[in-house]
């Protein structure tokens, strides 16, 4: 018996079992949370199993995927998962919009300030090598390439 945290998505014993199942097989479990770690995981894995012709039977919850009620249950879970996704997406977008109003921007901070980028351009224009400029600013060459304007081709 595998003991796993409900927030863990990789369950080694389950992950070994699922590829071995064939059409017509039935997975019998005590409760749905013994096979699925979240509603979204239930939808993804449950859909895959259904498409492969594999049935699920949750004994304590009286859910069997091969019955009309079981199929309806999985259909409702799919709708709820989609609704949950929309709620999360809307809340995230509202939070990002509120942050922008406060002057905050998302993402990683720039590695060089605009002043440093200008300072990097000057030695590059004078012929200094990219590795040397990168060493000066204690950054990588790829960072310097992102901030400088290339020399015009002759």
TrEMBL record:
<dbReference type="InterPro" id="IPR009057">
    <property type="entry name" value="Homeodomain-like_sf"/>
</dbReference>
<dbReference type="InterPro" id="IPR036162">
    <property type="entry name" value="Resolvase-like_N_sf"/>
</dbReference>
<dbReference type="InterPro" id="IPR006119">
    <property type="entry name" value="Resolv_N"/>
</dbReference>
<protein>
    <submittedName>
        <fullName>Recombinase family protein</fullName>
    </submittedName>
</protein>
<feature type="domain" description="Resolvase/invertase-type recombinase catalytic">
    <location>
        <begin position="1"/>
        <end position="103"/>
    </location>
</feature>
<dbReference type="Pfam" id="PF00239">
    <property type="entry name" value="Resolvase"/>
</dbReference>
<comment type="similarity">
    <text>Belongs to the site-specific recombinase resolvase family.</text>
</comment>
<dbReference type="InterPro" id="IPR006120">
    <property type="entry name" value="Resolvase_HTH_dom"/>
</dbReference>
<feature type="region of interest" description="Disordered">
    <location>
        <begin position="105"/>
        <end position="126"/>
    </location>
</feature>
<dbReference type="Pfam" id="PF02796">
    <property type="entry name" value="HTH_7"/>
</dbReference>
């Amino acid at each position: 018996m595998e003991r796993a945290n409900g927030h863990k998505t990789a369950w080694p014993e389950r992950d070994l079992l699922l590829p071995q199942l064939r059409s017509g097989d039935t997975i019998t479990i005590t409760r749905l949370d013994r096979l699925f770690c979240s509603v979204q995981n239930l939808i993804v894995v449950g859909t895959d199993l259904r498409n492969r012709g594999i049935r699920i039977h949750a004994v304590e919850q009286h859910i069997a995927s091969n019955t009309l009620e079981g199929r309806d249950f999985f259909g409702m879970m799919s709708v709820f998962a989609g609704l949950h996704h929309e709620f999360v997406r809307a809340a995230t977008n509202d939070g990002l919009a509120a942050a922008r109003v406060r002057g905050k921007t998302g993402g990683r901070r720039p590695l060089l300030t605009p002043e440093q980028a200008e300072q990097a351009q000057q030695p590059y224009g004078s012929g200094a090598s990219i590795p040397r400029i990168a060493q000066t600013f204690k950054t990588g060459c790829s960072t310097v390439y992102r901030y400088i304007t290339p020399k015009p081709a002759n």
